[in-house]
Amino acid sequence: MSRIFLALPLLLAAPFAAHADDAKTAAPPPKPSVSLEDIRAFTAVFNLVKQAYVEPVDDKVLMQAAIRGLLSGLDPHSEYLDQHAMDQLTEDTSGSYDGLGLEVLAADGNLRVVAPIDDTPADRAGVKPGDIITRINDTAITSDNVTESVTLLRGKPGSEVALSVLHEGATVPIDLKLKRETIRVASVRVRALEPGYVYIRIAQFQEDTGAELRSKLEKFKGKAGALRGAVLDLRSNPGGLLTSAVEISDDFLDSGVIVTTRGRLKQADLSFSATPGDLLDGAPMVTLVDNGTASAAEIVAGALKDNHRTLIMGRRSFGKGSVQTVLPLDDAHAVKLTTARYFTPSGTSIQAAGIQPDIELADLKLTVRDAPPSLITGERDLPNHLKGEHEKDAHGKDRAAARDNLDDYALNEAVNLLKGMALQHKPVGPEKQVAEKAGHEKG
Known about the structure:
Blueprint: E1 3-5, H1 20-26, H2 36-52, H3 59-72, E2 79-81, H4 83-94, E3 96-99, E4 102-107, E5 110-116, H5 121-124, E6 132-136, E7 139-140, E8 160-166, E9 174-179, E10 181-184, E11 188-194, E12 197-202, H6 209-224, E13 229-233, H7 242-251, E14 257-263, E15 270-273, E16 285-289, H8 296-306, E17 311-314, E18 322-328, E19 334-343, E20 359-360, H9 397-405, H10 409-423, H11 430-439
Parallel strand pairs: 12-13, 13-16, 16-17, 17-20
Antiparallel strand pairs: 1-18, 2-19, 3-10, 4-5, 5-6, 6-7, 6-8, 8-9, 11-12, 14-15, 14-19, 18-19
Helix pairs in contact: 6-7, 7-8
């Protein structure tokens, strides 16, 4: 079965993808347009390499190199997949693999970081979206080896790898030594921001992301009660499964188009729409995006934005608006080919343009300057003061959450905006929630 991808990493196909044989019969094959001269030129170069290259080269190696060159000349996402790449496809789908936790893109002879995955060696080392990896161990990354170099990032857990990383805007790369781990990506995290406000972090779109979101959010609502607002964090989310992106979008929408795809083949023309039921019961949303928000994550942001369900805050997203279909050649080889573009509900293609935030933010961090010990700003600063009714100790959840948000400028801005939006929104009462659930139950 052929497979459809929206993500930058290799992930499992959507179940509606067409068979390769079906794709062949869907439209008459184009007439051969390769001239005899071109075929002779290819054969001549092939024979010259066989005869004159400094070392003997196997015919099969040469042919596979030619296939890779054919695909790499199309766009950064079309490629030839061997058995190793197909194995990685299965690993990435499960959300577990051995490596550094990096989503990278080989383009223009560079190995560019799309996004580090949350709480992985790469994330903890300070690797950021837009960084360029110039060297892996003793191997300098060049246009000749950039595609193959991706495999050097993976390896046995506990093994070390040295990276030279050029931060965006820097002129000299920095050297990092990282230790590989078994990366288990928790695709969804849900926690309280303040009473009534929830933080939803989606790191990647995997097979079970939709079910994970519904489970965690329902459990949170059971404890917190009616929600006044939510921040959906899609920053540094490199994408994932189309089906998961559609599912997550549907979870926050009652109606409207989610995404459409269009290509040359009939099977590439698809449209997805929302069904009744909103996990937040209409509570206002702010969605955070940045330069590492890509592909399937951009589908969610675009669907929510165009349906006027959320305000987008942050920086322009990555801009990957193409669809890849994996067409098998045999049991161990396949071609991943760009076959369509996707469009947001307004009919906009975000390819190379990204999603522009409604409210743009600079890449800043908050810092707190410690006040002098003697400075008293209120009753709470007095020694042995009588505790207020709502005051929690230093280990209280509210203060812990506040400390977590302290250096996150974008999240702080999102919470401030959300509070203003919540003042104009009337929360849905428990009685109405029960009635609505009875009217349209959603899985």
